[in-house]
Write a structure and sequence with these properties.
Blueprint: E1 8-11, H1 17-28, E2 32-37, H2 40-43, E3 52-56, H3 62-72, E4 77-80, H4 95-123, E5 126-131, H5 145-165, E6 170-177, H6 183-191, H7 195-204, H8 214-226, E7 234-237
Parallel strand pairs: 1-2, 1-4, 2-3, 4-5, 5-6, 6-7
Helix pairs in contact: 1-8, 3-4, 4-5
Bound molecules: nicotinamide-adenine-dinucleotide.
Nicotinamide-adenine-dinucleotide binds near residues 38, 59, 60, 177 and 183.
Length: about 240
């Protein structure tokens, strides 16, 4: 079994969904976990969990990210999980949507990496895991223009960082889930008006005939956090969507 004993992990968007499941999995594996989110109310649900410290961090704000990392000290494992799903085609996405997708889904990762990487390089040891999606350069998904564009950029970011620092003790990989049961997915299914039809459409994209669970994605994040011979890869974990 994977142990992260003695490792310090920083998780963004850990308030709910995949980020929360991963923070819990990292702590269970022995890591000292800093679970961060912009929503402090969500973070309060960690009360009583051993090995987890919570902190409000807005990944859109460099000062907020830098202050958090200054407070934490050495970060061995960074999980960049924050992201937002826009719907719409190229003709429907506004410039504001594109800017926001790029800021939250891509530049957020640049902010956190810039904050933790110098320390990782000093220690010649560091793991960076970035949340992408199969809706990226892996596969084109209808009605997900801003999202797919930004998540493809996450894969490019991941490979670029991996290439620059592969000889310096840094590994950087991306996770590309299919559709995963999470609070924001519930919101999106409700927002479509007919919840049951929306849910059935999401499930229909999954050849396994079901949605993924956040804990199943956390297992891959845990693997990548403790692995030793993989870097620069984009790992699909999608119920068979991209077979
Ligand atoms: P979610 O969307 O339900 O939760 C997102 C969390 O991000 C919330 O707790 C929110 O408060 C936080 N957040 C929003 N803006 C923030 C900011 N500026 N700074 C810090 N935190 C902020 O969780 P999810 O659905 O598990 O998605 C997590 C990640 O996984 C996202 O990057 C998403 O794109 C990606 N992903 C999700 C799915 C899916 O089907 N759920 C599939 C593929 C990829």
């Amino acid at each position: 079994t994977m142990t992260l004993s003695g490792k310090t992990a920083l998780v963004t968007a850990a308030g709910q969904g995949i980020g929360r499941a991963t923070a819990l999995a990292f702590a269970k594996a022995g890591a000292i976990v800093h679970a961060t989110d912009i929503n402090e109310a969500l973070l309060s649900a960690y009360a009583g969990e051993t090995g987890i410290t919570t902190r409000k961090v807005d990944v859109l704000d460099s000062a907020s990210v830098n202050a958090a990392v200054a407070g934490i000290g050495a970060v061995d494992i960074l999980f960049n999980c924050a992201g937002f799903v826009h719907s719409g085609t190229v003709l429907e996405a506004s410039d504001e949507d594109l800017d926001f997708a790029y800021d939250l889904n891509v530049k957020s990762m640049v902010r956190t990496i810039r904050a933790v990487l110098p320390g990782m390089l000093q220690r010649k040891n560091g793991v960076i895991i970035n949340m992408s999606s199969v809706a990226s350069s892996m596969t084109g998904v209808p009605n997900r223009f801003a999202y797919g564009m930004s998540k493809a950029a996450v894969i490019g970011l991941t490979k670029s960082v991996a290439a620059d620092y592969v000889g310096k003790g840094i590994r950087c990989n991306a996770i590309c889930p299919g559709t995963v049961e999470s609070p924001s997915l519930q919101d999106r299914m409700r927002a479509q008006g007919d919840y049951d039809t929306a849910r059935a459409a999401f499930i229909a994209r999954q050849p396994m005939g079901r949605l993924g669970q956040p804990e199943e994605i956390a297992e891959l994040a845990l693997y990548l956090a403790g692995a030793s011979f993989t870097t620069g890869q984009a790992y699909a974990i999608d119920g068979g969507w991209t077979i």
